[in-house]
Hints:
Layout: H1 35-45, H2 80-89
Amino acid sequence: MQIGPPLEVKVWGEFACFTRPEMKAERVSYPVMTPSAARGVLEAIFWKPEFSWQIREIQVLKPIRHFSILRNEVNSKVVVSTAKGWMERGGGYFAEEDR
């Protein structure tokens, strides 16, 4: 296998979630992009069957910010026509009543 010169790629985004395997139900993220995610980014940019990407280093360029997202787990979906009716006539949907 021939190894070429190192390639540097700058990747950014407002939000990222690199899910930890031990937390399958909850979305708990690693604080930094994982090597397998970095390899996936490189494959998305340039993929050929004869290429094998080897991640040597991941650098963090800005401070990591954490935040929480709360999801409402409900039993049913709201139909668009029902939501439009709420907008026109008032009313709404209460997730606490649909669990």
